[in-house]
Amino acid sequence: MEPVTMISLAMMAAGAVTQGVSANSSKKYRKLGMQLDDAALASNLELLNAASEAESVAAIDSLRESLGTQTAIMAARGMATDSSQAVAISQKSNQKFAQDERFRTLNTMSKAIDLKSGNVKSYIDMMAKNRKDVTDIGVNALKNIPVSSLESYFKNPGKTTGAQSNGSFGMEDA
């Protein structure tokens, strides 16, 4: 092979190594980014659960206040708290609270799923970028091979070019 071709191949190999090191560095930074995303997801889920619990506690306090007010009104009217009308009113309040609690739980679960799906999407994007980096290294390595000089080398396997046969390595006799 001609020295120019060898130098060119060496430079392409150096470029491929540099691209590989760069891709590996990018992969490490993406992995660190995913770890940050995981930590953010965990803290967001904790915050979401804490907010849901706070809403539940506020709803329980509201229910207690409502039941206490109903009991006081019934007592002021002279109605027994165990009468059918009083029990029906209390049950209605309890059922409304239970329904609100179910909706609160469903909303919390929905928000948690949204957060987790965003995290999964980030992970898939990271894996796709890592795969693209590896593919790009291979494609660029193949794209930069000087096919014409390799073709002539393989067509005439025992022969060298004229410049190499006389030992001058591309230099002509004066």
Description of the structure:
The longest helix has 74 residues, at 3-76. The chain starts with a helix and ends in a 9-residue tail after the last helix. By secondary structure, it is an all-alpha fold. The protein has four helices and no strands. It is rod-shaped and about 115 Å long. It has one domain. It has helices at 3-76, 84-143, 147-155, 162-165. The relative contact order is 0.12. Helices cover 84% and strands 0% of the residues. Mean pLDDT is 80; it is low at 162-169.
Summed up:
It is built from four helices and no strands. It is mainly α and 174 residues long.
Helix and strand element order: HHHH
What is the alpha-carbon Rg in Å? 37 Å
Tell me the domain tally: 1
Q: Which range best describes the helical content: under 10%, 10-25%, 25-40%, 40-55%, 55-70% or over 70%?
A: over 70%
Mean pLDDT: 80
By helix and strand content, what is the structural category? mainly alpha
Contiguous helical run count: 4
In percent terms, what proportion of residues is strand?
under 5%
How many DSSP-defined strands? Answer: 0
Largest sheet: none
Rounded to the nearest angstrom, the distance between the terminal CA atoms is 23 Å
What shape does the CA trace take?
rod-shaped
Outline the low-pLDDT stretches: 162-169
